[in-house]
Design a protein that fits this description.
Shape of chain A: elongated
Strand content of chain A: 5-15%
CATH superfamily of one domain in chain A: Winged helix-like DNA-binding domain superfamily/Winged helix DNA-binding domain
Strand order of the largest sheet of chain A: 1-3-2
Organism (chains A, B): Allochromatium humboldtianum
Helix content of chain A: 40-55%
Low-confidence stretches of chain A: none
Oligomer: homodimer
Structural class of chain A: alpha+beta
Radius of gyration of chain A: 15 Å
Keywords (chains A, B): DNA-binding, Transcription, Transcription regulation
Protein name (chains A, B): Helix-turn-helix transcriptional regulator
Largest interface: A-B, 40 and 40 residues
Order of helices and strands of chain A: HHEHHEEH
CATH architecture of one domain in chain A: Orthogonal Bundle
GO molecular function (chains A, B): DNA binding; DNA-binding transcription factor activity
CATH class of one domain in chain A: Mainly Alpha
Number of strands of chain A: 3
Largest sheet of chain A: 3 strands, antiparallel
Chain lengths: 111, 111
DNA sequence: CCTATATTTCGATTAAACTAGAAATTACGG
DNA sequence: CCGTAATTTCTAGTTTAATCGAAATATAGG
């Protein structure tokens, strides 16, 4: 993941409502949840929620697919993994305590 | 780390300039860097940079201490570690690929 | 087709963020 | 004290985000 993409993703997660949505989707599991389910669970007005969801989808944090008349939202784990890898590689250099697992062979192009 | 604190921290990192500042400070090492050094390295106008730094300090991403007439900025690794732990615990539940190291015994109060 | 359901788009408002020059503050050295 | 260096605060303009009701769009089922 590149600098600007990481910043954009962080910015999307950096909102109370959107972070709550993402956490809810993760808890909902890989089956995801519909917009209406999210609305009921979190109590955010539909037009506002739709706006937030479209932003999250735009940066790749979630995927949306239509199922009948409902739209299913699913968290994009790979994208979050890319962000976490970026933060660990770019922001924890030299700080042993946080080097963390050498897992996640995610490439980290550019700068 | 709690939900709102995580969101606030993510929001601060979710800005091109502030993310660059944080990355620069991490690369600069535990000795940190002065505001002037950051300014020269990143080319951000001083008043703008000062504003960003104070925001980052406000959420605990960096620490600032005066040394003579310069002000040293140091990244707060523990805070970032708290954020990463939060994301891994709250946003990767059930997704094995990302469970990552069971390290970082960071408490995660409230909701 | 028609109705009900699910979600988005529109439109307008309010609030907050970003930007940066100019002026003020703080601190060192002579 | 005074000049200079380092940084912040002030101020103001521009841009972007957040909010949400109402109207519009899709889709399913009878």
């Amino acid at each position: 993941m590149k600098h600007d993409e990481a910043a954009a993703t962080l910015a999307e997660l950096g909102n109370r409502h959107r972070l709550a949505v993402f956490r809810y989707l993760v808890k909902a599991g890989p089956g995801g949840a519909s917009v209406g389910e999210i609305q009921q669970a979190l109590g955010i007005p539909l037009s506002t929620l739709s706006h937030h969801l479209s932003r999250m989808a735009h940066v790749g944090l979630i995927d949306q697919t239509r199922h009948g008349r409902a739209i299913l939202c699913v968290p994009n784990y790979a994208h979050l993994a890319g962000l976490l890898a970026f933060l660990q590689q770019e922001c924890c250099v030299g700080h042993g305590d946080m080097a963390a697992s050498p897992a996640l062979p995610v490439e980290c192009d550019g700068d």
